[in-house]
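Honest question from a wet-lab person: if I give you the sequences of every part of a complex, can you actually get the arrangement of the whole thing, not just the pieces? Trying it with mine:
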Amino acid sequence: MSNASTLPTRKDAARNRARLLKAALELFGTQTDVTLKDVARQAGVGVGTVYRHFPTKEDLLDALTSDQVTLAVDIAREAAAESDGWQGLTRFLEESMRLQVENGCLRCVVDTGEPFSPVIAEARETIASLVQQIVAKAQQQGTLNADLDATDINLMLLALVAVLDATRATSPDRYRHQLALLLDGMRAENRQAASIA
Amino acid sequence: MSNASTLPTRKDAARNRARLLKAALELFGTQTDVTLKDVARQAGVGVGTVYRHFPTKEDLLDALTSDQVTLAVDIAREAAAESDGWQGLTRFLEESMRLQVENGCLRCVVDTGEPFSPVIAEARETIASLVQQIVAKAQQQGTLNADLDATDINLMLLALVAVLDATRATSPDRYRHQLALLLDGMRAENRQAASIA
Amino acid sequence: MSNASTLPTRKDAARNRARLLKAALELFGTQTDVTLKDVARQAGVGVGTVYRHFPTKEDLLDALTSDQVTLAVDIAREAAAESDGWQGLTRFLEESMRLQVENGCLRCVVDTGEPFSPVIAEARETIASLVQQIVAKAQQQGTLNADLDATDINLMLLALVAVLDATRATSPDRYRHQLALLLDGMRAENRQAASIA
Amino acid sequence: MSNASTLPTRKDAARNRARLLKAALELFGTQTDVTLKDVARQAGVGVGTVYRHFPTKEDLLDALTSDQVTLAVDIAREAAAESDGWQGLTRFLEESMRLQVENGCLRCVVDTGEPFSPVIAEARETIASLVQQIVAKAQQQGTLNADLDATDINLMLLALVAVLDATRATSPDRYRHQLALLLDGMRAENRQAASIA
DNA sequence: TATGAATGAGTGTTCATTCAT
DNA sequence: CATGAATGAACACTCATTCAT
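Yes, you can. This is the full assembly:
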């Protein structure tokens, strides 16, 4: 939870930092156009406190993203540890989506060209490499289409996140259906040469 | 009160409206954070003119959406006219995405809970109903999974749009791969009972 | 008064620009730490109007300075036209100070290393060159110390401005005494070899 | 209530006060827009400590000024002790400027109408009185213009400080030229009836 | 007592919207 | 009608000052 680059020694400071990240997660997870005053109010502190912990709005978002990406790295690691590649892939997608359902700030796992901090870039690379391992394993085991790579998996996540965001208010489980379809489409035995030109 | 000299004004007004929508499409299709001054400049008119035609920024976006949804309705209608259901479905998705590639304002075809105007709501319903027809036909013909409905298709579009938006700058064709996967996953013969819990 | 780089075509816009410059002159001429809200209030307009005319606080100050420096150029030109060099020098100093008494924004005639716009830089060079002419003429005519140059004159102005600013509230004419002393010190016939080590 | 264990604290407090003043002098002497956090960091203490010693930013500046004015009083006293009035005057100006070159906080010796503390006011009066003695002596000895008084001398200092501040970065000795001119202008024998109207 | 975290009024600046020309 | 100047609420961010640790 606490970033390596910042070390809030005092207890109350650490608590405020956590509160701020929690508040920010709650707000940015569901809306865009969140002001820092909103975050401060939600966290029950003054604006100045936001700036003490995060010198810039960008920095707050980076910290938020870092936290989520760190959790995502753990998920990828556990998924890569599965001996069955297909199982690993399924687990990676499902657990990542569970993270998004709970926190709603996963957008950033995929590199969309937006500015990001080194920490995030590194985590992304780690995830990409782990996913690549999972993909390779599943392909060797003959359960995954040969024409997929790590980027496809990341984009799938992005797609599912979009679905979740759109349906969260009315039927937050809906994305699972899409995930099922995608998984079916990814099975090696289901590949259709003529699906698309 | 109305005389001959005021007639050409109507033409001008219509032309300005078209110009504004074109300008807005060009800008909102690729960026966010577009100001109305930007739109006015792109259209070659003053800000006041924007407000004459669209009392509110929201109204402009609604009009933009309406245009796109209208085009989407046409696509859906043509797709529904195909005798082969699977073909119709494929066509609907591919053509809709082509629209998004070109115009970039398809976000709104799916109801995401955001406020929208009656005309958009109506068009959405029309599309939903047409897609439902396509889906039913394909299912009757035994080519489409039985557990899919029109909403799934719309959400698929939403997902693909997210992929396109993220990859537009670097590899704008990437979404086609995701589409292929989804199509494979949707084929009746490929349905896996155990894909997901 | 109106800058060449900006062309306020409308009458009311031009009036507001003039009002803003007037208000800014009144405020910046006597105080530091003036906010743009202060300027807006003093001018009787909204803050937005300040930004329409001057995209940046710096720009407003630049415009203010430009105006004053332009007036200063005229003074220098007239002073350089005097056939008597000493007379020209006296005139330059007295008239420049009159400008400062009235407007209070002359600080900028001397290059103090702060950022400034090209317009100001150019005007400064023009003034420096004219003052150099005056100095040379007076030195040729044997009325001015040989060891003075245009920079000395500018620094003298700076010094006198400091005196004026400090005494404006209590005895705004006091600077004239300092000016008299400096003029006496500049007369060729009064040069003391041993005045300072 | 007071015991042996609190005694060393006094020493610490005194040392911190000195450190703070030193740090403040270093920062305010060369820049404007110095924050109290800057001062605290430069002094190696926390902000809270600044406020323990100086309840207000203004108070810190007052203390700074007091220190400098005290040094200036010493200079004035030594200068007044010279038997030769002109020598005393020269010494006063040169030494005062040396102070400004080194510390850069002399602004305050002259009453510019800004708020100031009683101790500063008193020191100013002392200086004024000493300078008045020097001036009177030199006038009696026939080396100084009859129309000068202590205020003129203080304003001269102010003027020279302005010159120094403007030229410090590029040619910090430049002010000496202005000083030479002023001294020449102040010599009784160089008085020109017609220097200024 | 020293520390530095917390505070919030205040800055410069933007932009949707209104209104005089 | 079209224009673009005027408006002011709102934003990201700063900093003198207070207060919990």
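Two things worth pointing out. Confidence is low (pLDDT under 50) at residues 1-6 of chain C. The radius of gyration of chain C is 19 Å.
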